[in-house]
Amino acid sequence: NNWGIGCYNQGDMACAMEKIREAIGIWAQALPADHSSLLTARSSLAALYSRSGALQQGEAQLRQVVAALEASNAAKPSADSVNALSHARSELTTNLLYQGRAADALVLSRQRWHELQASRNPGETAANALATLALAELANGLRQSALAHARDALQRDHASAPGSRREGYAVLTLARAELASGDALAAATHARAAIAMFTKALSADHRDTGLAHGVLGRALLASNQRAEARKELDAAIAILSEKAAWLPELAELRKLG
After folding, report:
1. Each residue of 101-118: pLDDT tens digit?
2. pLDDT in tens, 64-74
3. What are phi and psi of 213, to 5 degrees?
4. How confident is the model at residue 214 (pLDDT cuts 50, 70, 90)?
5. Got the DSSP string for 152-188?
6. C-alpha span between 212 and 180 (Å, rounded)
7. Angle at 169 between CA 167 and CA 170, to 5 degrees
8. Nearest-angstrom CA–CA distance, 131 and 136
């Protein structure tokens, strides 16, 4: 499973799917069907379907995993099961956002955050829950709450995982919220920071790096820095065309050209 995650971090989706399938096959023989490690691997595989553009297939599998984790967590709650359920809900929320189902994504992300708060020990998933909630709020036009949640997410990740991909995700989410709120200068600053973090933690041509270039390009356009914006948008389009051509965000970036 960790090998598969490493493949994904390097942008190799085929390798990631192969290794996670292998992990599921091994664990399915050795672990009960409701074990958190097995369900987490199933969630990871479903997320890879989503990130490859197979959104309906990914959603169906993620819903199965979420239902299994909810039942497991109700029967015998543990820190592992709480975290596994939180991650699965995060992936399902992202899937729904990709499908343009903003209202459904908002309901799910709010549920996730409220239940993590109730657990009183949200762990490392708290920052991700806040960042995902912020993205769902942005998709529903709730700019100010998105900005507040994105700032909270970044504060948590900067304290616990500075310079990591996790912090990069929080930084990029804050840049999106700032751009939506009309602060293009702050958005550009944070988008540049996200590019640097993703380049170091992942690669210069990773999908997440491409998304950060796109946010920077849009922020520069909003500041009327058209030449600089064109360079960033071209970089984003080149990366995303290769790594995630199905993404709705890529089509939006192409329209800006």
Report:
1. 999 999 999 999 998 888
2. 989 988 888 88
3. -60, -40
4. very high
5. HHHHHHHHHSTTSHHHHHHHHHHHHHHHHTT-HHHHH
6. 15
7. 65
8. 9
